[in-house]
Specification:
The complex is a heterodimer. Chain A is α/β, with parallel strands linked by helices. Chain A has five helices and eleven strands; from the N terminus they run E-H-E-E-H-E-H-E-E-E-E-H-E-E-E-H. Chain A is 23% helix and 26% strand. In chain A, the strands form two sheets. In chain A, strands 2-1-3-4-11-10-9-6-7 form a nine-stranded mixed beta sheet, with helices on both faces. In chain A, strands 5-8 form a two-stranded antiparallel ribbon. In chain A, helix 2 links the parallel strand 3 and strand 4. In chain A, helix 1 crosses helix 5. The radius of gyration of chain A is 15 Å and the shape is globular. Chain B is an alpha+beta fold. Among the domains of chain B are: 49 residues, no CATH class; 183 residues, PurM-like C-terminal domain (Phosphoribosyl-aminoimidazole Synthetase, Chain A, domain 2), CATH 3.90.650.10; 205 residues, PurM-like C-terminal domain (Phosphoribosyl-aminoimidazole Synthetase, Chain A, domain 2, Alpha-Beta Complex). In chain B, strands 8-10-7-11-9-12-13 form a seven-stranded mixed beta sheet. In chain B, a hairpin with a 7-residue loop joins strand 15 and strand 16. The longest helix of chain B is centred in the N-terminal third of the chain and has 21 residues. Chain B starts with 5 loop residues before the first helix and ends with a helix. The chains are: A alpha/beta, B alpha+beta. At the A-B interface, helix 1 and strand 6 of A face helix 9 and helix 11 of B.
């Protein structure tokens, strides 16, 4: 199993995502934003960071990168894509996922160990969880406030496409406490918190994050 | 004015340039004329003015700092010492670690966000320049009184700037300090420390060797920001009657720096540079003169080739600009194509601006006209050296002992602890630290509020490093020689409490005006103390930074020598945290308490300073470090006793653990009774939690190392109970955590 990890200029968590992929038992393959070559990977992670310095809008410039052209085409055919934090922002800007990630309600960057409740375990990236399971993974962003119009929110709720919600006090003002969503097909997932930082008790608050990466491997093997 | 060429300068010897506006003194201007044998050109004067500034030349501190060389301990660990961009130490397994702290105090007062942001950017480039991947940052900060209106302007801006820049670079922020004192009003201290790692063979130096090699400028384009930052901003006392200095503050672009880091590391990995220097204070003036001065030949630079953000900049401004995110490399011509290809991959602008020559002079031309012709050493290394007048300050003769009421009843103990834990210097700092990414890179083992920050270096062997920064400013005020010694010993204790062995130190010495003999004496005593303690502890000084002129009018800041100690831990899985996970553990205090409250937080809360710093006990501290390292596997938790005394230490432990404790301090055996037992800040003490079954083993090790060993309580429950005073954890947590949000929103 080969899982690609994309590096854009300003990507920060690419090495962390690669480590998580390898902890899960797959080979991590480095993909470069400026090439459209997916190098025959079986899935792709768009890691966190400040690609292009978050200039213009978070993820807006990266969404136009050559590698994204290939990812968009593949995703429309069911290829597994996980966008974490800035990666989620890129997926929203690329219209692979609806909505937008806006400035946190209190206007501050927030780094915290966040409790999430898993709401959908049918996606390629969440099948290892049980519905209702509470997990703790780090969150760190300044623009993680998920917003969308009422019709979109209604659709996400009706179709069960909200994969995880914040538990306790809403940390950033996200609509309906949304921490992550998926597309209709369940192959593309965007998640604001960082599962790649919760794979080992030595460096993270839990090992809960690893399940996102083992989930996609399980889905591929089946 | 037309271009002031060397020819023009020689032809107009009597024309006097406005040297005072650039921060130079009349005798310094005369010295420049003597070196050159003529008056300097405008461009030459620009270079000398920034390079001979206090900030760049260390002219007031040099005569004292040489003690670090004279008293240097024997050390096999030091690979690169003082003088380079940052010192480098050997941590074993072929790894070299570089670390250094710098101040960005004045810019952070003028423009808090950008001042703090570019402070981080500058220290990160220093570390990168050594050939290392930056792996963590820490920020020791000092502000005026917490509730002062200006602190509410400065602190949120500084914190946002550190976060905004550091987070965007992908560097975990693993610790630091936040201290409030009214002397920092108008003179906040923003120090930034960065740590980097590389293999031994990858160390790079700032040297221009090999005639014919190319001088390449890469990174951001040069703009009009930060002109004269080192000379005008960092090297003068603030004077409110003068115009604002905001144009002298640089503006940061962390995205450009992140790309520059990755680009540089890829260039280093292919071994494409002969020498490298970052552009910080004094910009191109500093980079070219230092590279040439440390090299074997001269250098020609064609200044018109420098890519500009603002085409109207004059040659003098180009030389002085402190635009951020720029580097200067020396490259063999055969490697240029590959170098340029990597820069292109990362969209980094790179331009050949000159070449190394076999001559001895630094020649800078502008459109073919010679505007600088100087011996580079006279600019970079042979700046003025001053022996400033020193005098023991008079305040030392009028110090008063503390007079504090005893705290004895259960109600009084509870009220006192809640008051202490809510006071800004002790209160929970997570309002600040939540704005910093502590997880990125995935190697953070311990981060604030732990005793030290700890980073894993190797995922296979589990080798790691720990870093702690400390300053004991009030003790330095009472006794500068011993104050800095106590800071270093505290840092070492913090490192050992986490389970690492102290290896080397860096420093950032923040003081008032060197033109004040009292400040200068305090500084000299501090350097003498630091050099002595490093020799006594066998710890090499890898480098440092001096920040003078932290004073408004006649009021100087408390002398604030920040010491950073780096330690090594062979297996990070054995680290010790300050929090425990079980009830029923036994709590012990290692080390004795005495009744000196001078300089303590408890005295500060009562508006008192006291009259004497504790006497550093190097022998005790050395044995304590040995004990901590030897007993490490027995500890379920360990936490140093420092600011706020035992009361703060145990409160921090129970709150982080979310498990209470019942404490019984044997007041009858403590000089100063329970008040001292709770609030005195006697150095050389640590609280540890161990399983009951391990108590005897710890006792035996304590006896072996001659460290006093006191049972003080047990863990469990949902309250902190001390000598009959019961404080529910919810109440303690509310007091501890509400202060910062109330103050800063």
């Amino acid at each position: 199993m080969r899982v690609g990890v994309v590096t854009f200029p300003g990507t920060l968590d690419d090495r962390d995502a690669a480590r998580a992929v390898e902890y899960a038992g797959a080979d991590a393959v480095s993909l470069w934003h400026g090439s459209d070559d997916l190098k025959h990977v079986d899935a792709v992670v768009l890691p966190g960071g400040f690609s292009y310095g978050d200039y213009l809008r978070c993820g807006a410039i990266s969404a136009k990168a050559p590698i994204m052209k290939s990812i968009i085409i593949a995703a429309e055919h069911g290829f597994p894509v996980l966008g974490i934090c800035n990666g989620f922002q890129v997926l929203a800007e690329a219209h692979l996922l609806p909505g937008a990630l806006t400035r946190n309600a209190d206007m501050h960057f927030l780094c915290t160990d966040q409790t999430l409740k898993i709401e959908n375990n049918k996606t390629l990236w969440t099948n290892g969880f049980s519905v209702g399971q509470e997990i703790v993974i780090p969150m760190k962003n300044a623009e993680g406030n998920f917003n969308c119009d009422d019709a979109t929110l209604n659709e996400l709720e009706q179709e069960g496409r909200i994969i995880a919600r914040y538990v306790g006090v809403n940390p950033n003002g996200s609509r309906a406490d949304i921490a992550g969503i998926t597309n209709k097909r369940g192959n593309v997932v965007g998640l604001m918190p960082h599962p790649e930082h919760a794979i080992d008790l030595l460096t993270g608050p839990s090992k809960d994050g690893l399940t996102f990466f083992t989930s996609v491997l399980n889905a591929m093997v089946k | 004015m037309a271009l002031d060429t060397v020819t023009n300068a020689a032809a107009t010897p009597d024309f006097v340039l406005p040297f005072e506006q650039l921060g130079l003194k009349a005798d310094e201007y005369e010295k420049i004329k003597a070196i050159l044998g003529r008056r300097p050109t405008g461009s030459e004067l620009a270079m000398y003015s920034v390079m001979w500034s206090e900030h760049c030349s260390y002219k007031s501190s040099k005569v004292h700092l040489k003690q670090f060389g004279e008293k240097a301990p024997q050390s096999d660990a030091l690979l690169v010492g003082i003088g380079e961009n940052a010192g480098v130490v050997d941590i074993g397994q072929g790894y070299a670690v570089t670390f250094k702290a710098e101040s960005h105090n004045h810019p952070s007062f003028v423009e808090p966000y950008q001042g703090a942001a570019t402070g981080v950017g500058g220290i990160v480039r220093d570390i990168l320049t050594m050939g290392a991947r930056p792996i963590a940052i820490m920020d020791p900060l000092r502000f005026g009184k917490a509730d002062a209106p200006d602190t509410r302007r400065v602190l949120p801006g500084v914190v946002a700037g550190i976060g905004g820049y550091g987070n965007c670079l992908g560097l975990p922020n693993i610790g630091g300090e936040i201290v409030f004192d009214e002397t920092y009003a108008g003179n906040p201290l923003v120090n930034a420390l960065c740590v980097g790692v590389m293999r031994h063979e990858d160390i790079k130096l700032a040297q221009a060797h090999g005639a014919g090699n190319l001088v390449v400028l890469f990174g951001a384009k040069t703009g009009g920001d930060g002109i004269g930052g080192a000379s005008i901003l960092a090297s003068e006392t603030f004077n409110t009657s003068k115009p604002t200095k905001r144009p002298a503050v640089q503006v940061g672009d962390p995205f450009a720096e992140k790309v520059l880091i990755e680009c540089s590391l890829e260039i280093f990995a292919e071994d494409l540079v002969v020498g490298i220097q970052d552009l910080g204070a004094a910009g191109i003036s500093c980079a070219t003169s230092e590279l040439a001065s440390a090299g074997t030949g001269g250098m020609n630079v064609q200044l018109e080739k420098v890519p500009l953000r603002d085409p109207s900049l004059s040659p003098e401004e180009i030389l002085m600009s402190e635009s951020q995110e720029r580097m200067c490399a020396i490259i063999e011509p055969s490697k240029l194509a590959r170098f340029m290809a990597i820069c292109k991959k990362w969209d980094v602008t790179a331009t050949v601006i000159g070449e190394v020559t076999s001559g001895e002079r630094l020649h800078i031309t502008f459109n073919g006209e010679l505007i600088v012709d100087v011996p580079p050493r006279t600019v970079a290394h042979d700046g003025p050296v001053l022996t400033r007048p020193m005098a023991r300050p008079e305040y030392l003769d009028s110090l008063q002992p503390t007079v504090l009421d005893p705290v004895e009843s259960a109600d009084a103990i509870k009220a006192a602890i809640l008051r202490l834990m809510a006071s800004p210097n002790i209160a929970d700092k997570s309002w600040v630290t939540k704005q910093y990414d502590r997880y990125v890179q995935g190697n953070s083992i311990l981060t604030q509020p732990e005793d030290s920050g700890m980073i894993r270096i190797d995922e296979q062997t589990h080798l790691g490093v720990a870093i702690s920064t400390d300053a004991c400013a009030r003790w330095s005020y009472l006794d500068p020689y011993n104050g800095v010694k106590l800071a270093l010993l505290e840092s070492c204790r913090n490192i050992a409490t986490s389970g690492a062995k102290p290896l080397a130190i860096t420093n950032c010495l923040n003081f008032g005006s060197p033109e004040d003999p009292g400040v200068m004496w305090t500084f000299a005593e501090t350097v003498r103390g630091l050099a002595d303690i490093c020799l006594e502890m066998g710890l090499p000084v890898t480098g440092g930074n001096v920040s003078f002129y932290n004073q408004t009018g006649k009021v100087a800041i408390l002398p604030t020598p920040v010491v950073g100690v780096l330690g090594v831990i062979q297996d990070v899985r054995t680290r010790t945290s300050m929090s425990y996970t079980d009830a029923g553990l036994e709590l012990f205090q290692l080390g004795n308490t005495d009744d000196n409250f001078s300089g303590s937080e408890w005295a500060h809360l009562h508006g008192q300073m006291g009259d004497r710093a504790p006497t550093p006990d190097v022998d005790h501290e050395t044995r304590l470090v040995k004990l901590l390292l030897e007993a490490q596997e027995l500890f379920a938790a360990a936490h140093d006793i420092s600011n706020g005394g035992f009361a703060a230490t145990i409160s921090e432990m129970v709150l982080k653990s979310e498990i209470g404790a019942t404490i019984d301090l044997p007041a009858q055996y403590i000089p100063g009774g329970v008040t001292a037992g709770l609030f005195a800040e006697t150095p050389g003490r640590v609280v540890v939690a161990v399983k009951s079954a391990d108590g005897a083993a710890l006792n035996a090790l304590s006896t072996k190392h001659g460290i006093a060993f006191h049972k003080v309580g047990t863990t469990g429950g949902d309250s902190l109970t001390i000598n009959g005073a019961t404080i529910p954890l919810t109440e303690l947590r509310a007091a501890f955590t509400e202060t910062f949000p109330k103050l800063f929103g």
